């Protein structure tokens, strides 16, 4: 969930996709964690895939930076990369973690996992969301953090062994392995422990949260980045059909909407994750294609929300909980559309505060540190 782009070009199309991703997440969590209108849109049940779109975006953006540096210099600085990621991700994340632990009244749910899980980004391993359900959405940040750590190490190893040009074999192998792993976990961990009366499906612990089951989106993003950097001729050919790529992506996602009608279904677990990743992969590729409508559409509103998307993701449950609690006392019906508008507006306001007082200063500090190191 980053705001950087792989080149000096500003990809406005990716801003629109970030807005789509965070909107899907907000709608989904508003539906399943809070009181919502009876007419709430049917798309809400598909909102969980917003995280998958974030994964594809991260895979593309982060890999593009690394691949471009490797292409220009035959290597890259892991230390330099980690400094950039740390200053971008950690400060506002730790602030939100502190809010959750220091002010229990602000939590959307009463219980939290142990603090060390948040500090070590192991929150998504063995998480029982039926017991520890506050700030449960931090699981996806763990997945991304594991990606930030492992991808550069794998690339350094491939460079050292002179196997980088064969990296596509690893990508394909991991993608295929995901099918078999989820199939095994479905039959050997989920079904034996299935509890039909559980408020939170027991499916989330062995299938949904673990990093090793959620690599599809990241792998698709990495694949797009590799094509973008290392196969420019092929990239130019396919991106001539930017709008067609968007249509194909929407078609695949429409199919997934019906295929994955149940979040904890077998089809979702085995086929849904990779198909959704591929569908969003087409959208990302279309969004960075110069001939597509998303690429040409410049929107200050989209760019603004995209800048805030990381902070919105972190703080949105607290903001929604505070809004519903406060405005209910002023007579606003929690099931009204007005309450939904208030809650979403509060999410943006809270995120803007975090972005202004936390993200911007640390990004400036990061840039000064990197500039000093580069000179």
UniProtKB/TrEMBL annotation:
Annotated membrane-spanning segments are 12-34, 46-67, 87-106, 138-159, 166-185, 212-231, 243-264, 270-289, 301-319, 339-358
Protein keywords? Acyltransferase, Membrane, Transferase, Transmembrane, Transmembrane helix
Q: Tell me the InterPro entries matching this sequence.
A: Acyl_transf_3_dom, Acyltransferase_3
Show the GO MF annotations: acyltransferase activity
Acyltransferase domain residues: 12-355
- Quote the protein name from its UniProt record: Acyltransferase
Q: Which organism is it from?
A: Jejuia spongiicola
Q: Organism classification, top ranks?
A: Bacteria, Pseudomonadati, Bacteroidota, Flavobacteriia, Flavobacteriales
């Amino acid at each position: 969930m980053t705001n950087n782009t792989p080149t000096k070009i500003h990809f406005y199309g990716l801003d629109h996709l970030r807005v789509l991703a965070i909107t899907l997440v907000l709608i989904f969590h508003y539906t399943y964690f809070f009181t919502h209108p009876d007419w709430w849109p049917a798309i809400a049940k598909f909102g969980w895939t917003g995280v998958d779109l974030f994964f594809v975006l991260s895979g593309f953006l982060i890999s593009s930076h690394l691949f471009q540096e490797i292409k220009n210099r035959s290597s890259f600085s892991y230390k330099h990369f980690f400094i950039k990621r740390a200053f971008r991700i950690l400060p506002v994340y730790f602030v939100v973690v502190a809010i959750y632990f220091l002010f229990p009244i602000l939590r959307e749910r009463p219980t939290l996992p142990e603090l060390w899980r948040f500090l070590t980004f192991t929150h998504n391993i063995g998480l029982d969301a039926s017991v520890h359900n506050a700030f449960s959405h931090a699981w996806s940040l763990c997945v991304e953090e594991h990606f930030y750590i492992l991808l550069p190490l794998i690339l350094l190893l491939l460079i050292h062994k002179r196997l980088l040009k064969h990296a596509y074999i690893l990508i394909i192998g991991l993608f295929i392995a995901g099918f078999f792993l989820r199939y095994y976990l479905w039959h050997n961990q989920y079904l034996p422990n299935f509890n039909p009366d559980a408020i939170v499906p027991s499916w989330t612990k062995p299938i949904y949260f673990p990093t090793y089951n959620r690599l599809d989106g990241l792998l698709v993003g990495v694949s797009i980045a590799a094509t973008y950097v290392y196969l420019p001729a092929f990239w130019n050919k396919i991106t001539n059909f930017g709008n067609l790529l968007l249509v194909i992506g929407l078609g695949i996602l429409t199919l997934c909407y019906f295929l994955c009608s149940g979040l904890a279904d077998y089809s979702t677990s085995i086929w849904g994750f990779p198909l959704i990743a591929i569908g969003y992969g087409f959208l990302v590729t279309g969004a960075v294609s110069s001939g597509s409508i998303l690429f040409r559409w410049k929107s200050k509103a989209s760019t603004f929300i995209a800048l805030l998307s990381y902070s919105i993701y972190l703080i949105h449950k607290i903001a929604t909980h505070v809004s519903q609690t406060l405005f209910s006392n002023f007579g606003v019906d929690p099931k009204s559309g007005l309450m939904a508008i208030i809650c979403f507006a509060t999410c943006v306001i809270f995120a803007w505060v975090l972005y202004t007082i936390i993200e911007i200063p640390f990004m400036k500090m990061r840039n000064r540190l990197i500039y000093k190191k580069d000179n």
